Amino acid sequence: MVNLKEDERLDYLLAEDLRIIQSPSVFAFSLDAVLLSKFVYVPIQKGNLIDLCSGNGVIPLFLSKRTKGTITGVEIQERLYDMAVRSIEYNKLEHRIHMIHGDIKDMPKQLGYGKFDVVTCNPPYFPTPSNEEINLNEHLAIARHEILCTLEDAIRVSGQLVRQGGKVAFVHRPGRLLDIVTLMRSCQLEPKRIQFVYPKQGKEANTLLVEAIKQGNPDLKILPPLYVYNEYNEYTPEIREILYGKK
């Protein structure tokens, strides 16, 4: 049994055969989180992984199917942290996934520098707007806008947490590519793999996946483009496999 609160629902993570607690008024994960969890390199047998800005724990849940390592999630919003904890308990993954309710900026001092093999982050995408423009829903505003965590914060903390030779992977918007590369290099994170995600062929990319190595050598690979929809507005085979698994 799972204890659902207010307008929460229990959704399937289909390809992974897991369930996750979601709420339309508080947080529901997007395709971006799924793409990041599939894009990042993870050690299969063991390893120490951490996901920053975890929301309702979707990325740690996805990663638990790709690695036997231990996974830490960090979320500053208590309501989302609580949703993540209950989802982890429902899936009986407490022995593998540990959630922390806290500010990512405190994590290097709290958890230690250079302790993690892999760091993932799906940070807020948008600069903090004026009070007139900001979402009146506090939960959604914090998840989408750089109110409590800027891109610079997220990259700096990632660089502090990851070990030498470890991986750091972000999902973001293509418009921030140069900011991301500049900030990563300033934190000794060398971008090694980039993939652009397009709504469909003929459209501009709207999602960016980037993975860096701590103190890695310069050698950037641009992966083949990933298209979400075909000409019939149906998921492409690649996206269907990511969401639903192989037939």
Automatic annotation (TrEMBL):
Keywords from the UniProt entry: Methyltransferase, Transferase
InterPro entries found in the cross-reference section: SAM-dependent_MTases_sf, Small_mtfrase_dom, tRNA_Adenine-N(6)_MTase
One MF annotation (Gene Ontology) recorded for this entry: methyltransferase activity
CDD domains found in the cross-reference section: AdoMet_MTases
Stretches assigned to the Methyltransferase small domain: 22-126
GO biological process, one term: methylation
Superkingdom of source: Bacteria
One Pfam family named in its UniProt record: MTS
Identification of the protein by name: Methyltransferase
Species the sequence originates in: Bacillus methanolicus PB1
Species classification: Bacteria, Bacillati, Bacillota, Bacilli, Bacillales
